[in-house]
Design goal:
mainly alpha; four-stranded mixed β-sheet; 4 strands; 5% strand; 2 domains; abc type-2 transporter like fold
Length: 383
């Protein structure tokens, strides 16, 4: 029995390696997925905002201090320009936005009713929101002194001088932004999941091809049993996917230098668990397929839509909330959710439910495949 199993495993490995499509799915395509993720999220970390400053409120300390505050913001580069050249610089892309301080800005601050600072940009809230949030808070803070002073310039200057010379210090520490690395990791894993599912079905479909070319029936005329045949195919399937997982993680961390935020051994174990789900799903597809063409059609209809809905190809957050709820019923979602929780600092104890759900998917799909094989009316079927 064991000897027959080892022979079947060896035969399945040799057969699968002869087909270049299997090697493409196992090794090459996951690397392409890593490259695609890197290109999509390249430069999505810290970026600088280039600002042009137009000052119509000349020789006013309050206005100049406000300009200095904006210029000293993190990830901001500011320069003085003329209003006549503002539109051309913004349209050409040399500047992300232009801030125009109107005449009488300082006077309005002293009176507690500052004139609004105009912001011109064609890049929308993605750029202006960052500057506005800091600028509005600063102007509101100093204009409140004008309200307290009741519009009295002398009283305002006294309050303002005390504010500027305050000994209160705030210490800050820069924390590295890992969001881009995490996004690249999640997208890479998403692509890997899709390729794992396709490669699992492609390898399981060898059983259909063997039946079509009568190899399967010749094997069953020997002491080899149908159960041994199917089980050996599943073992090879899992082993090849574990190689696929290891190769992807190695290339991702060593060549592309992506920091996943999770220990690699944890990623490998969780992805290996999902490999069980992928193999079980592939067996279900094969069990319901009468031909290779039918198996290819079913896998396309099942794998791609569910992977899209689960957030493998693009973030789940971009989809409507009603569509997002569908993801709760898909194993791909629970895999990605597991990685998301671990990246946020959760321990393995916090993802036990996710692991249990993945195991439940694997068990349920295996039972469905076993039942369907057993109900096959062909006396020469797999099980």
């Amino acid at each position: 029995m064991l000897k027959d199993m080892l022979w079947l495993i060896r035969k399945t490995i040799l057969t699968s390696l002869k087909d270049y499509k299997n090697l493409l799915l196992v090794i090459a395509l996951p690397i392409v997925g890593i490259l695609l993720s890197t290109l999509i999220y390249k430069g999505s970390g810290d970026t600088s905002v280039t600002l042009g400053i137009v000052n119509h409120d000349f020789e006013q300390k309050v206005t100049q201090d406000t300009i200095d505050f904006v210029a000293q913001l993190e990830h901001t580069e500011a320069s003085f320009i003329r209003e006549s050249e503002a539109d051309d610089l913004v349209v050409s892309g040399e500047l992300d936005a232009v801030l125009i301080f109107p005449e009488g800005f300082a006077k309005g601050v002293i009176q507690g009713t500052p004139e609004p600072v105009r912001i011109e940009s064609i890049k929308g809230a993605q750029v202006t929101g960052y500057v506005k949030s800091y600028l509005n808070a600063y102007v509101q803070n100093i204009s409140s002194m004008g309200v307290i002073a009741g519009g009295d310039a002398a009283a305002f200057n006294e309050l303002y001088s005390g504010y500027r010379s305050s000994t209160f210090q705030l210490s800050t520490t820069m924390v590295a932004d890992q969001s881009a690395n995490h996004d690249m990791t999640n997208r890479t894993i998403g692509y890997l999941v899709v390729f794992m599912l396709f490669s699992a079905v492609n390898l399981s479909a060898l059983t259909i091809r063997d039946r079509e070319n009568r190899t399967y029936y010749r094997l069953l005329s020997s002491p080899i049993t149908a159960r041994s045949y199917v089980f050996s195919n599943a073992i090879v399937n899992i082993v090849l996917m574990m190689i696929q997982i290891a190769a992807t993680l190695f290339v991702m961390t060593r060549f592309f230098h992506i920091e996943p935020g999770i220990p690699l051994w944890q990623m490998f174990l969780i992805l290996s668990l999902f490999a069980l789900v992928a193999v079980s799903l592939s067996q279900v597809i094969v069990a319901f397929s009468d031909s290779t063409m039918m198996a290819n059609g079913i896998q396309t209809m099942v794998i791609m839509p569910t992977s899209l809905l689960a957030g493998c190809v693009f973030p789940l957050s971009v989809m409507p909330e009603a569509i997002q709820r569908i993801a709760d019923f898909l194993p791909q979602y629970w895999l990605l959710d597991t990685f998301g929780k671990l990246q946020q600092g959760s321990g393995l104890n916090d993802v036990i439910l996710n692991v249990a759900i993945l195991l439940a998917f694997a068990l349920a799909l295996s039972l469905i495949a076993t039942y369907k094989f057993g109900r096959n009316r062909d006396t020469r079927s797999y099980v």
